[in-house]
Amino acid sequence: MTDTLANADSETPNHQTVRVDLGRRSYDIVIGRDVLETAGIRIAALKPGARAAIITDETVGKLHLDRFRDILNAAGIQSVALTIPAGEASKRFEMFERLCDEVLAARMERGDIVLALGGGVVGDLSGFVAASVRRGMSFIQVPTTLLAQVDSSVGGKTGINSRHGKNLIGAFYQPDLVLCDTSILDTLPLRDFRAGYAEVAKYGLLGDADFFSWLESNWKAVFAGGTERDEAVARSCQAKADVVAEDEQEAGRRALLNLGHTFGHALESAVAYETERLVHGEGVAIGMMLAHEFSRRLDLLPQEGVDRVEHHLLDVGLPTKISDIPGQMPPAETLMDIIAQDKKVSRGNLTFILTRGIGSAFVEKGVDPILVRDFLTEKLAS
Ligand code: NAD
Ligand code: ZN
């Protein structure tokens, strides 16, 4: 029986730790199979005597909540569970209000913990609740989707959607600890796993050619859940942590994380966020493909680079073309309007993340919208 943090670490040498370096607000991301088993003692060591309000969604709750509460209980951590409906629609004001009130009704104090057990929806919403109730409670993330483990739980962006658009209301609020149990992804539907994988591939494509090569050779094991999955999650978290430590509030380098996202967001918006047609990671996959093809068009990289990206995305079963999205797409002009709303337009030019090759993305502020429109017109026809 492990009952101290030292025991937890020595008995589980397979767990890796990525440190997010943000001065006084630094925190650890612990990654590995069955990290959940050590959650109780890790949390008790970090926040002695604290209670926890666990926020989860109905799907994750059914699968993992009872076991998780037992683990906390065994370490002497009292908890209440607050469950929301699964899906993006929960990231809204009414749900935020309900959760804030429920956390207060459970008599949670400032040093107590808001604990997110779920995907990016639960994480973003819970983080905003943690940032707001009593002007900031402790916050711990236990991400349960691949996307949440490699992306949304790292970096401190929290928030909800507004009728004016996605993620428009929120706060930068860093967690105190992130626990990525890679075995919890075994219950994730394949489509969601693939969508999260698009973000994993993104880290290779934006700044780490060796990682992308490694993924080309090891992706099957990442999907199957071997130690390669832990490795992929850890390298992704490290990549995001490095960028966030350098540029927490997205003044410069953090923008590189948006590789594929300008096109991807436009496609998501064009299908009105209907997830039956397109989920975020699929939009990112197509968007990354478009970013590489557009960069090729500008003669920034050789065709071989574009082909490698396409092969890999196809290998793992991700979409690569706009025509892979079921149903009718709007014309290029409509996509351009969405892009212009999404982006800062400066002196008539657009900012895009372009690339000089695998692992060599950069921020380009002077992209001519006419070139993008003509490119999209062509892509919509093919
Ligand atoms: P999600 O939270 O909706 O989860 C996807 C689905 O998987 C849900 O139905 C959920 O119930 C289910 N699920 C979760 N874990 C499971 C498990 N282990 N087994 C079985 N089913 C499981 O979606 P997501 O893709 O994790 O996150 C998307 C959200 O993340 C979006 O709202 C997006 O805006 C946000 N996001 C935030 C950031 C950030 O920096 N904060 C970054 C990227 C994305
Ligand atoms: Zn993304």
Walk me through what this model shows.
- The chain starts with a helix and ends with a helix.
- A seven-stranded mixed β-sheet has the order 1-2-9-6-5-3-4, sandwiched between helices. Strands 7-8 form a two-stranded antiparallel ribbon.
- The protein contains 14 helices and eleven strands.
- The mean pLDDT is 94.
- 48% of the residues lie in helices and 18% in strands.
- The chain is globular.
- With 382 residues, the chain is α/β, with parallel strands linked by helices.
- Helix 7 (190-207) packs parallel to helix 11 (280-297) and helix 10 (261-270) crosses helix 11.
- It folds into two domains: 3-186, Rossmann fold, CATH 3.40.50; 190-381, Up-down Bundle (Dehydroquinate synthase-like, alpha domain), CATH 1.20.1090.
- Bound molecules: nicotinamide-adenine-dinucleotide and zinc ion.
- Nicotinamide-adenine-dinucleotide binds at residues 57, 59-60, 63, 86-88, 91, 118-122, 124, 144-145, 147-148, 151-152, 155, 157, 167, 184-185, 187-188, 192, 280.
In short:
The protein contains 14 helices and eleven strands.
Please describe the topology of this protein.
Elements: H1 5-11, E1 16-20, E2 27-32, H2 39-46, E3 52-57, H3 58-74, E4 79-84, H4 93-105, E5 113-118, H5 120-132, E6 138-143, H6 146-152, E7 157-162, E8 165-172, E9 177-181, H7 190-207, H8 209-224, H9 227-246, H10 261-270, H11 280-297, H12 303-316, H13 332-342, E10 350-355, E11 361-367, H14 369-381
Parallel strand pairs: 2-9, 3-4, 3-5, 5-6, 6-9
Antiparallel strand pairs: 1-2, 7-8, 10-11
Bound molecules: nicotinamide-adenine-dinucleotide and zinc ion.
Residues 57, 59-60, 63, 86-88, 91, 118-122, 124, 144-145, 147-148, 151-152, 155, 157, 167, 184-185, 187-188, 192, 280 line the site of nicotinamide-adenine-dinucleotide.
